[in-house]
């Protein structure tokens, strides 16, 4: 091999090593994505309140020092499913949940990998940690005399089974601002209109491996459209006029601990009261 070829091979090898290092870094970081969301029906008492949202932990272990730095910074903690996966020891899950519950009142839904792993064991450690598991259930969140409705949508074991209808809003609560948490954003495909002011979802990992221009090539057409980030609709004939959806890239990883142009994330979501529209 000529010196020129050796030089080229060395450069390629160095670039490959740097790329792998970057992909490993993106998959292992603890990073918060801060967002503000303006909701028309949000009570004044909830202005400025914060939700800490984390989805798709899978087999990762949370950093105790990092999680302790979040204490006192969120009013509620919401877990968007895939809290574990097969072969993850429940003791690790228990430690993660204890750190999350220390931040604030915690609520969770199942993801598809939770159902395939150990749903009974997960339900037990959630309860032990003081986290509320929502399976097609509503709970009322209260703050300063105001109330909003939190709805947990249960994940079907198989997509072909479809989703149960969203739990009915209790009598007297129809006008409440509603936050829905569902693991898989494909839930919206089964709805003629979105029934919540704010929807929180995960599952997609944002594709995990993304390329500039082309995006996430391993997602199907629906998930390529709804891959990660914020989405908004306008449905003027509904009680919820402008539903909004956040799809998280997730904290954990599937199959390989590598990401590209799609770093792992958690979310701190600040709820804001949308200004009244002129009549």
UniProtKB/TrEMBL annotation:
InterPro entries xrefs: Calcineurin-like_PHP (IPR004843), Metallo-depent_PP-like (IPR029052), Metallophosphoesterase_sf (IPR051158)
An annotated Gene Ontology molecular function: UDP-2,3-diacylglucosamine hydrolase activity
GO cellular component: membrane
Alphabetical GO biological process terms: lipid A biosynthetic process
Pfam families: Metallophos
Sequence intervals crossing the membrane: none
Domain Calcineurin-like phosphoesterase, first and last residues per copy: 50-206
Descriptive protein name: Metallophosphoesterase
């Amino acid at each position: 091999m000529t010196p020129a070829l050796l030089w080229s091979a060395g450069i390629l090898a160095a670039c490959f090593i740097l790329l792998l290092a970057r992909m490993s870094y993106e998959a292992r970081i603890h990073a918060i994505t801060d967002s503000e969301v303006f909701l028309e029906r949000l009570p004044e008492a909830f202005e400025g309140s914060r939700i800490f949202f984390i989805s798709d932990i899978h087999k990762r272990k949370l950093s105790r020092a990092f999680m302790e730095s979040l204490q006192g910074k969120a009013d509620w903690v919401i877990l968007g499913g895939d809290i574990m996966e097969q072969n993850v020891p429940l003791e690790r899950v228990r430690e993660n949940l204890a750190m999350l519950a220390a931040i604030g009142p915690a609520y969770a839904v199942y993801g598809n990998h939770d159902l395939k792993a150990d749903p009974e064991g997960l339900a037990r450690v959630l309860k032990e940690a003081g986290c509320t598991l929502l399976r097609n259930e509503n709970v009322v969140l209260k703050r300063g005399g105001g109330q909003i409705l939190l709805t947990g949508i249960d994940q079907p074991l198989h997509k072909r089974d479809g989703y149960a209808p969203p739990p009915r809003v209790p009598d007297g609560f129809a006008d409440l601002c509603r936050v829905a948490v569902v693991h898989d954003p494909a839930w919206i495909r089964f709805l003629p209109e979105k029934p919540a002011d704010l929807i929180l979802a995960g599952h997609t990992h944002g594709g995990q491996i993304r390329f500039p221009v082309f995006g996430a090539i391993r997602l199907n057409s629906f998930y390529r459209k709804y891959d990660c980030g914020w989405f908004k609709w306008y449905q003027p004939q509904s009680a919820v006029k402008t539903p909004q959806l956040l799809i998280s890239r997730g904290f954990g990883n599937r199959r390989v601990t590598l990401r590209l142009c799609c770093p792992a994330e958690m979310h701190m979501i600040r709820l804001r009261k949308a200004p009244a529209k002129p009549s």
